[in-house]
Structures are given as structure tokens and as C-alpha cells.
Fold this sequence. Notes:
The complex is a heterodimer of chains A (474) and B (251). Chain A is of the alpha+beta class. Chain A has helices at residues 36-44, 98-105, 123-128, 136-139, 168-174, 209-222, 286-299, 311-315, 348-357, 397-410, 428-431, 435-445, 454-459, 466-469, and strands at residues 13-17, 26-31, 51-54, 70-73, 81-84, 89-93, 110-112, 146-152, 158-161, 183-193, 198-206, 225-230, 242-249, 272-273, 305-310, 321-322, 333-341, 364-370, 383-391, 414-415. In chain A, helix 5 (168-174) crosses helix 12. With 251 residues, chain B is of the alpha/beta class. Chain B is globular. Chains A and B meet through strand 2, helix 10, helix 13 and helix 14 of A and strand 2 and helix 6 of B.
Amino acid sequence: MRNTARPSVDGAHQQDLTGWGRTAPTRAFVAHPAAATELATGMRDHGPRGVIPRGLGRSYGDAAQNAGGNVVCTDRLAGRCELDPVSGRAWVSAGISLGKVIEEVLPRGWFPAVVPGTQFVSIGGAIASDVHGKNHHRDGSFCGHVTAIELVTGSGGQLTLTPNGTDSEAFLATAGGMGLTGVITQAQLQLRPVQTAHVRVETTRTNDLADSMNVLKEADATAHYTVAWVDLLRRGRGRGRGIVTAGAHALPEELGATRSASVKMPPNRRLASVPSVPTRAGVLHPTAMALFNDVYFRRAPARPTTTFAPIWGYFFPLDVVGHWNRLYGRAGMLQYQFVIPDQATDQLIPMVDRLLADGIPIYLAVLKRLRDVPGPLGFPLSGWTLAIDIPVAVANLGPALDRLDAHVAECGGRIYLAKDSRMRADLVPVMYPRLDEWRAVRDRLDPEQVMHSDLDRRLSLVARSSGHKGLLNA
Amino acid sequence: MRDALGRIQSVLLIGGSSEIGLAIVRGLPRIDGASVCLAGPDRPEMEQVARMLRTEGFGEVRVLDFDACAPTDPHGFVAEAWAVEPDVVIVATGYLGDQATASHDPDMALRLIDINFRGLVPALVEIGQRLKTQGHGTLVVMSTVAGERPRVANYTYGAAKAGLDAFTRGLAASIDHAGVQVLVVRPGFVRTRMTAHLTPVPFSTTPDKVAAAVAAAIGGPSKTIWVPGILRWVMRLLRALPESIFRRLPA
């Protein structure tokens, strides 16, 4: 065993880390290497608890934590954003946020092929979680538009991985690999040409969850971007009513003279920031949230309407409030995101009903259709995904979500690892039947099993069973 | 790893058939199928406990031999206990013994010191190192208010527990930076098999109440807890009393 009191990556200091949900903090040696070479040296001198990369900390759970080990923050690996304006391919550093990339490339007529619900994810994190967006039904996930990944492995080796190259297996294992194949230092993205910085949005109100599902599915047939916000605090017949938005990049001729008919950057504003909330359960309350939902719902036009929105507000609505996770108080929150396959479509409403019957307050719920992705640890599959935000300080939350886990697994569905903070390890191989295939590639890239995270330990991702964990410390 | 809801995945209990220890194990918030490692000297009894725990929704339950009277190879023992990385380690060995005998029998006196303190030290050293390395987890050590001020009725037991209490608090300070919680638990009189022959005194409590207090303190800022909580203030008062008055108090 090596000496653990000594930080093993240069300049590392001990720090408590949590994910965006602000739950289950653990302490790690945190380093901020400024170059891939510095990183590679540090990787070779890891402690017994291994290494995990961390981007902007937007995973909800413990994916970017490593208790007692090393956490490599990629925030200083952020120098490169080189766009080839002809092909629309861009080399970007792993630590750059998606928002920064957009600010760089949008004025030149390009936009990331896939963006998640926040601009505050790093490129490395977007790849490691293989994030999906409102165009998933058409374009697939983020990694489907990544043309190369530079990876520093656990042994300090530097690899360039491509989706069709000699080691496409390693590329696919890294896409959605939760950082456990190595540290991504930069990547090449294939961007999408756009003519404006606005989105044409068709907004449709829906009456209940079944209606939301139908309208969303219909919208998918024609629209580029679709998503449904649904109100699951509403009781009774209107439960799951919502707003389906269908979007497409606006064309210059569609935008009136009031808006610049170009890709001139609309302001990327943060309107407010939430200070620390000292109470355990935060400031959100089911009744107040239900009222908020009601107002939000009624603000949307009753008949389908077309409007134009700047890309920031359309793609990243929550980003205007900084630190919104603090609203949930000291106890924190979790996001439960699952997907169930098409053949289990009829199970979605019973699942939601069961949660509501268990008294679980769902403050925010987003519905979306997904399709399969090629990676062995990929989350999306052809079916329905629901992402729900829940405060942790809720009675009986554990058993209620455990039951839902079992139901999801039974249907052939899965839980998104980038959001998970509480599922049971033994369900992972059921939900991710290609786990062993991923492990085989991962072990080839990192034979000494240097890469570890709290998520990995909690769910036994790297090592086969809990019984193997102890060997790492021996 | 503890999850977002504070539920543990695995627990190590030293004193594997201790009533208080088992009450704490059962009272911890846990995921379904959490694993347990029981370590103690009485294997048949622990095997029986293990069978019961398995029927109560625990997953893997392992049994290890550990005798505080005759500790051998603490490094090997703790390594084996760590085959599954514990989120909570509970040290709940306790032997009240017989003070009347211990007052005139050096062997009995030493036995009390061994079981309640000396025999635990090597294991605690190893456990401290393990927890420091893993950077998470809680160490719960059962102390007692009897260690706070010696009484004629149980001073040898009290002295051993006082040693354990002081050692544990020192260990806590030495690994405080590592993201690990060390919790010293000082219950009053706990109604268990160990105390069945004694008459309960004021502020007595039960294993379940101790377990509830421990479950509430895990993951929080507490370093020392008293059960019931009022004993924190009662003991502060008793410690301040002059010896002449303290001795005259009813046992």
C-alpha cells in the first residue's frame, strides 16, 4: 500500500465533493492539472484508491467522487476550441463547458449536434455520460457526433480513439463509460450548421400524461427537437398534463426584422443565483410548487402556437438560475431518470401513479422519447424516458424508488447512471446486460484498475462483485 | 458506499453477538441486501445471528473469529473483515464481569481490561488506517458513562471503557482530516443480558434506543453522544461533584 497521506497528483488538496444533488459527500485528493502530460504523470503516481476525472460536477450523484482517492478536475484542461469552419469539426478541450463551445462556434454558423438540458457540462463529462438532448429521437446521443477522443488511461498511456478506428470498442466503452476508462483530455466534435441563433418553437398544451405521451410521439415524427414538461404535482384527472415543445433551428427569413437574421449571439444571461439555504428541507414546498406549475402551465398558450426563442432559453431554461440545486436545502435532491422500452409503454402511467400514491412529491418532470445507442454502457434505448426531481428529505423515498427500480428492471428498462445516487448494485447487470462486455474493454484499457469512483464502488461497476472490493485495499 | 438517502451498503460489527451492537446494525438505514460482517469469540451464536439477519433482508452475512482476550494477527483479521468495504464499523464488545471478584482477583481485573480495552487496541489501529485510506465511513465505539467517573460497583469495567473512550477520541482526532466520522457512544445503564442480574438505575435505556440515537448521529457532525441525551448534562454535573459527595450518592 502506498502512503495515502501524501497527495499523489501534484498540487492535490483534500476536499469534500458531492454531485449536483448535494448528497453523500466524500473526501478526495483533488488536483487540477493544466496539461495532458502533467495529468499522465499524475496518473502513474496514483494512491491505492485510484483516480476519477471530474468536469463541472453536474452529475446528480456520486459519479465524479472518489472517497480517499484522487479526483482529477478538468477545469484547467480548457484551452482548446479549434473549429474547422468548412467541415464543422472542432477540437475542444475536455474541461470546456458546452456553453463556452457554443459561444465560440455559434457566431460562425455552427452548433453542437446534441446538447443536454444545461450548458454547464464539460465536454469530457458529456462524453463520459453520453448525454442526450431534445433531438435524441432523430440524432441519437452526444457521442454519436464525437469523431475522436483523446484519452489518458489509468496507466498514463495516451490514446486517440475514434468511432470507426482500430479501437472502436474502446471509443464505445468510453462513451457513457462514466469516466472509468480513463481521463478524456480533448475531443473532436462534428457540429451542425445553423443559420440563426434562435429556435422556432411550437408549443402545445396537453391534458394529462397519456395526452402528453401522444402529443410528444406525434411531434417526434416531424420535429427536430421535442420534449414534454409534465406536471406531476397536479392531482386527479389532470395529472401529467403538460407542455410539449417542438423546435427547429430558425431560418433567417422566419425571423422578423426585429431580430437579427443571423447567428449574432443573443445574451447568455444568468438572472439570479440561489444563496446557501441553511434548512435541511430547503425552501421548496409541494403546495407552492404545485402553484408554480399551475402558473407555468397557464402561461403557455391554450392552442398550439409558434414562437421564436433564443437558443439559451430554449435549450437551457434552468441555467438562468445559478445554484438552483440549493433550493432543496442541506439534505439535497436527486434526479431519478429511467427509460422503459416501447413494448412496456403501458407501464409508464402505472409507474407514475404508484410513486404519487406513495406520496412522493415530484417537483420537476420531463418526458422524452429515446432510441438505442451503440455503447455497451449506454443509457438510451428505444422507448420512453422520464426524469423527475425529488427532494431527498421525503419520508419513504427509499422504498418507493426501490420498488420503481424493480419495476423498471422488470420492463427491460434502466436507470441513468449519470443521475443515479441510490440504486442497488445487483440491478445494474439486469439493466445493463452488456456490462461484462464493457468491463472487458475497460479492463484492457486499465488493467491495474486505477480508475474508480464512488459510483463505481457503490454499484460494483469495475469489479464484478462486492467481494472484490477489498482486494483493492489489501 | 452510503447512498444519497444515507443508506449503508455494508457494516462490520465487532462484538458480533452483542445485543446493543446488533440493535445498532438493525437500526441503521440500509439498502436492501446490505452485507454484514460479524466478528466475535462465540461462533455458534454468531452463526445463529447470521441466519436471522439473512431472513431480515440483509444480504451476505459473514462471521469472523475475533477474541479480544487473545488477539492474534490484527492486520490479517481486519484485512479479512474488509473483504467488503464497510460503511459503518461498530465496536460493541463489552464484558461487565464481576467487580466483587475483580476487586480481589488480579486475573479477573486484567480480563476486564483486556476484553473492554486492551484487546481492541490493535484492531482499532488497523481499522483507523483502513478508514483513513478509504476516505469515508463511520466508526462507532461503544463506551459508557461508567467510564466518566469511577464507582465502587464497576470501576474496573469503567476504567477499561475510559481507556477505550480516550483512545477512540484520540484516534478520531488523528484521522479527522480523512473524511471519516468517529462516534463515541456513552449510554447509561442499558437493559441487556449483560445487565439482567442488576437493578436498573435512573436514566437507564434499551438497545433499541441506543440504536436509534446512533442511526440519527451517523453522517452528522456528532463525535460523542449520550443515551439518553440528558446524561450529557447529568454526567457533566456528576464529574463536577467533589469526591466526598459523589461517594455518598446511592449506587
